[in-house]
Structure formats: C-alpha cells, structure tokens
Amino acid sequence: MTVAKLRKPKIAKKPRKKLTAAEKLAARIAAKKKRDEAKFRASAKEIFIKSGFQFVRSENREFVIDTSNGSRTTELDGVFVYENILVVMEDTCTATPGPHIAKKQIAFELAMKNKSEFVNCLIKNLPDFETYFASQTYEATEYELRVVYFSMHSVDSEYVESAGRVGMQVVEKALTNYFHALVKSVSVSAKYEILKFLGVEYKDLGKAKLSGGNHRALSTFQGFLLPEANSSYPEGYKVVSFYADPASLLKKSFVLRKNGWLEPNLSYQRILDMPKIRSMRQYLSESRRVYLGNVIATLPSTTKIHDIGTSDQLPPSGQLNVKPVTISVPDEYNVVGLIDGQHRVYSYHEGADIYEPQIGRLRDKQNLLVTGIIYPLTASEEERTLFEARLFLEINGRQTKVKSALTQEIELIVNPFSGTAVAKAILINLARKGALKDKLEEHVFDDAKKLKISSIVSYGLKPIVKWEGSDSLFTAWPAQEKKASILSKESRTSLDAYIAYCVDEINGLLNAVKASFPEGWQISHESKLLTPTAINGFIKCLRLILENDGERGFEYYRSRLSGVRDFDFSPYKSSHWNQLGEELYSTFFK
Prior knowledge:
By secondary structure, the chain is of the alpha/beta class. The protein has 23 helices and 15 strands. The chain has three domains: about 35-210, Trna Endonuclease, Chain: A, domain 1 (3-Layer(aba) Sandwich); about 215-395, no CATH class; about 405-590, no CATH class. The strands form three sheets. The protein has an eight-stranded mixed β-sheet with strand order 10-14-11-15-9-8-13-12. A five-stranded mixed β-sheet has the order 1-4-5-6-7, with helices on both faces. A two-stranded antiparallel sheet has the order 2-3. It is globular.
C-alpha cells in the first residue's frame, strides 16, 4: 500500500521591502566604507609582512600587561618581529581617533617604560611569539620595542604630540599609502626605510646589538677622488667614483622622493615606478649584464677617504689631486642620497618574484658605478637639502619636463622668497587650518577625493601674494618694516609673518563661504562649490575686494554671502576662475 506524503502548506513569503533611492545610496556608501576600512587595515599589516617582518597572531586576545610599575588590560591589533625589533601595531578607522589614541596611550606607555617585562608578557600570552623567542638568541632585555598607531583619519596634533612623548608613532592614511606603495615597489628591501622611520639605529639591530653595538662601522670601496679644483664644486665638497654592490646601497640609501616621510614638504622626487622596476628586474635576470651609466648620489660628511696603498686616512693636503683611493661609507640607514639612478639600484631589491633567485646572486657583486659627492662637515641639513634640490634640477631639468607640482616643491626649497614658494607655503597652511583643512592633496598618496593643488598655487594664490599691485595682500599688509626685509630677502621671520597674514585673510573669506553653505562644502557635492576652480574664483573675488578697497573680515563676508547656496557654479570649468571671481564679486560685494 502506498502512503501519500503530506505536503507542507506553503508559507507565503513576505515581499521584500523595496528600497528607496536614498536607501540604496546609503547601502552602497556603507558597503564602500566597510571595504575601505578593510583595505586600510590590510595595508597597515602588509607594510610589515611584505618588508620581511614576521607576523605574530594577537587579534581578539585580551591580556594583562603586568609590570612592576602597574598593570593594564588591552588587546593588540598586530605584533611583528624582525631580528630583535618588536613592533606593536594599533589600527583604527574611527572618524575621531583622538579619544581612542588617548585610551591606548595608557597601556602602551606602560609597555614602553617596562620593555623587558612587556616582552615576557607577550611570551606568556602569545604562542607565536613564544615560539619565535625560543628560536632566537636575544634576551628579553635586547629587544627594541616600537609602537605604531595607524589611523585612517586625521589625528589632531595635540594627540599626536602626546603619543610621541611616550614613544608612540602616529601614521595617518597618506603615510600608510606611502609605505604600502614602497613595499609593493621594492618588497623586503623596504625594511631599511621602515627601520629608519621607526628610529632603529644600525647598532641596535640584530648582531650589532648582541656585540654591544661594536659593529663594523664602515663599508669600503676602491675608487677615484676628484678634488674641488677639478670638479668646480664648492670648497669642501669632494667627488668620488667607485663600484659598489647593490646590497650595500640598498641598505644605506634613501630616494629623495616627492612627499616622503622624512620631510614631506622638503622632498621632491617621484616614488619608485613599479612597472619600471619590474622590467629592469627582468632585464637583470635574463641578460645578467650590468647597467651602463653611473648612479649619482650624495654621501655623508662622515665618509672617509684613505690612501689606497697604506689605508691611512688622507689629510686635506693629500686630497688635492686626482688619485685612486679607498672610500669608506658609514654602515647606517638612509645616509646615501640617490639623486639619479635610483631605479637601477632598487631593481636589485630583495623580492619574492620569479627573478629573485638570479638577482640574489648579483646583489652582492660590486657592479654599480657610483659618482658620489661627499658633504663637508660644516654643511647643515638645510644646505644639504638645497644642494640636492639644485643638483636634481641640473640633472633632470633638461631630460624630462618637470611637473608643475614638482616645480613648486623645488621652488619652496631653492627660492623661498619667490611668488611660487610663498603661494605654496600658504597652501600648506590652508590645508592645516580653516575651511580647507583636510580638503587639499598635500601628499601624492592622499585620497583621490582631495582637491588637486597645483592650479590653486599657480592661478589662485600666486597672483594675490605678489609684491605689488592694488589687488595684492602684500600691498594691504600694514607691516611696512617687515615688507622691506622681505623685498631684500633678508628675513625668513618676516616672510613667515606675511604668510600667516595671508592665511588669515584668505581663511576669512573661505570660512564665511563654508559657514554660509556648510552642506555644500564637500568635494563632489552637486553644487560644485568645493572645486579648484571655485577656490580660485573666490580668491579672485578677494583680489577685487582688495582692489576696490572693500570691507573685509569673516562677519562682513558672512553677511554678504547668505545667498551663495543659490549661486550656480556648474557653468564655470577649469580655467574660468577669473570669470567666476568677477561674477562672485558682482553678485555679493559690489
């Protein structure tokens, strides 16, 4: 007998709620925010993992930092080790990270003040670190502890300074992007720049630490000396040529990259070109030939020149003629500045690609010809930066067209009293306070959502800061004595005072615009209120106010700009800022 199966009654499905356009947009924004946060956290970890640090699992493990000076319960977002370097990482994506960093600072301060006890605490709580510690010869007291706080959003300076006082280093998104791009370009060889950033001295790393810091202080190369009389360089600047192994250069060198971490506003070279590096590694691996042409670099003043026969250091009187010599360069990070040929050097980097087995065999051979300029002992940091900037222009100015943003960076170094340099300095300040704070692309690694700055410097700021004209802030500035010292290029203090005055005057107008239409003061807003063209238009409007001796000040501007939300900015494209400025003046101030 067949028994019929009873069918379950169908339960009517609830119809899906149809999302409104606004809800769909909100969902897309939320999903993108989640992806961006995940990408940021992954980038922070990859900086260490891909540069050769070992990752120690610590996430979601709450434990007590217990020391003789107190205890604190905390979680660690990331722990990384390389030799005896221990890096503890915290990452956050909160929009207002200040309170969070203040909270974490308490635990990290305890760790930094009790380093060996903190190391023992990690051994007890983290199995991965216990295994690593057992495999090494370092004692707990020989570990160098560094704490790095990665923030996806800007951290107020007061919190950065407070963290710095207890040994925490704050890394915001632009700098995170910089280091991540560096690691993608040169892989494990990025560790030298990261160690420099972490403040790890060569004598405190690995075997040097075990030997009490008595490491081999110098790397020696045989080459030739070209004294000042033959090179025509200033007195005290020596020129040497020698063949160096890429491994030594990778360890000692830094590239004067545009917007690097050492001096983001006083550095100017491009970041290493990843496709170029890859193609050069392929060439090295397949052809196994050395590059023809020399690498141009600056060498520290502590570089020694020795007699090639006796190995004695040459006195000044022995450095007056062209002769073969032995050059000794200090074993330290970031002491050799690569001015030209950086891609040749970094194509030998320690990598994880298919070319590494062959390139690894070439890395220790002395096959790169280096022309090095040794600084005199008397050269200050500012003089070195200026020298390198001018040298960069000499080498690159005739070869390729230098981009306008790059030109502005160099101008700020070599000629700080020029209109371009003053305009650039003002823009740097506008990016840090006032209506344009966090809205301008200060770094090449800033988010794409920030405003491009080169046209604002060239066409907005430069005309309003010029040294003459009724539409110039310099003319309006009442400090007559300081004006004279600026025109004679005698006083940087007076120049800084003028820059501060210009920032306040420009912010007066832009702050009023933002206050009059706050919801429109967003990049990509449909009103087109916040674009480089609109910013230049408002600066042109301010020039007309100056030219017509109009009233100025935030409160006055605010009273006149009440209708700015109804102004149509959309017809004004690219180079139409003059027309826009005239229309703004006519509409609101005439």
